[in-house]
Design a protein that fits this description.
241 residues, mainly alpha, 77% helix, TPR-like_helical_dom_sf, signal
Length: 241
C-alpha cells in the first residue's frame, strides 16, 4: 500500500511539473512575451528566459521574432548548460538561415558548445584534469573554430577562436600523449612509437610533442633499434622539455 502511495505521489508531482510551464508563461502578445524573455536574459535568469523563449517559439514559429528567439535560445541553452539542446537549435537555425548575417556568431557558439561538452561536472567540482577522457567534443570544437577562421577571417570572434584553438590543440596533444604512455606501460613498443610520431606530426608545437620523444626513446631501446634510437636521442637534445 505504501509503495502504491509513493508511486501515485511521484506521478502527480511529475504531471504537475510538466503542466507548470504553460501556467508560468502568461498568454500575452508576442512583443510583451519577448520583452519578458529578453529581460530574463539580461538578468541571467536562464531558466526563465528559456521557458519564455521556448513558449514564444512554439506559439509563433514563423513570427517576427522567430530568428532572434532561436539566437537567444542558443545563448541561453549554452549558459544554462543545456548543451544538447543548444547544439540542436544551432543545427535548426543553420538549416533555416544558411546565409544569416550572424552566421559567424552561430558558428562561434557551436564551438563554445562543443568545447563545454569536453568537461564534466565532476571534473569541475573536484578540479580534476583528465587528459585521457574522450576528446571527441574537443575535436569538434577545434573544427568549428577552424571553420570560423576560414569562412569569416575578419569576424569579431576570430581572435578568441584562435586562442581557443591553441588550448584545444594542447588538449588533444595531451590526450594522444596519454595514449602513447599507456602503450609504453603495456609494453606495446611499436604502438607507442606510432602514437608518438603522430603527436610530433600533428601537434609539433606543443609540450606533448617534446614529451613524446622520451616515449619513443624508451620504446626504441626495448625494440633494440640502434639507428632510430640514436636519431631520437639527438631529437631529444634539440627539443628539451
Amino acid at each position: 500500500m505504501k509503495r502504491l502511495t509513493l508511486t501515485t505521489l511521484l506521478a502527480v508531482a511529475l504531471l504537475s511539473g510538466c503542466s507548470s510551464t504553460e501556467e508560468v508563461v502568461p498568454d500575452i502578445p508576442p512583443a510583451e512575451l519577448y520583452a519578458s524573455a529578453h529581460k530574463a536574459l539580461q538578468n541571467g535568469s536562464w531558466t526563465t528566459a528559456i521557458e519564455r523563449l521556448e513558449t514564444l517559439d512554439s506559439r509563433y514559429p514563423f513570427g517576427a521574432y522567430s530568428e532572434q528567439v532561436q539566437l537567444d535560445l542558443i545563448y541561453a541553452y549554452y549558459k544554462n548548460d543545456d548543451l544538447a539542446l543548444g547544439e540542436a537549435t544551432i543545427d535548426r537555425f543553420n538549416r533555416l538561415n544558411p546565409a544569416h548575417e550572424k552566421s559567424d556568431w552561430v558558428l562561434y557558439m557551436r564551438g563554445l558548445t562543443s568545447m563545454a561538452q569536453d568537461r564534466s561536472f565532476m571534473h569541475d567540482l573536484f578540479n580534476i584534469d583528465r587528459f585521457d577522457r574522450d576528446p571527441e567534443p574537443a575535436r569538434k570544437a577545434f573544427r568549428d573554430f577552424k571553420r570560423l577562421l576560414e569562412r569569416y577571417p575578419n569576424s569579431r570572434y576570430a581572435n578568441d577562436a584562435k586562442a581557443r584553438m591553441v588550448f584545444l590543440k594542447n588538449r588533444l596533444a595531451d590526450y594522444e600523449l596519454a595514449v602513447a604512455d599507456f602503450y609504453l606501460r603495456r609494453e606495446a613498443w611499436v604502438a607507442a612509437v606510432n602514437r608518438s610520431q603522430l603527436i610530433q606530426r600533428e601537434y609539433a608545437d606543443t609540450q606533448a610533442a617534446r614529451k613524446s620523444i622520451a616515449i619513443m626513446e624508451s620504446a626504441y631501446k626495448e625494440l633494440g633499434l640502434a639507428a632510430p634510437l640514436e636519431h631520437t636521442q639527438k631529437l631529444k637534445t634539440l627539443n628539451p622539455i
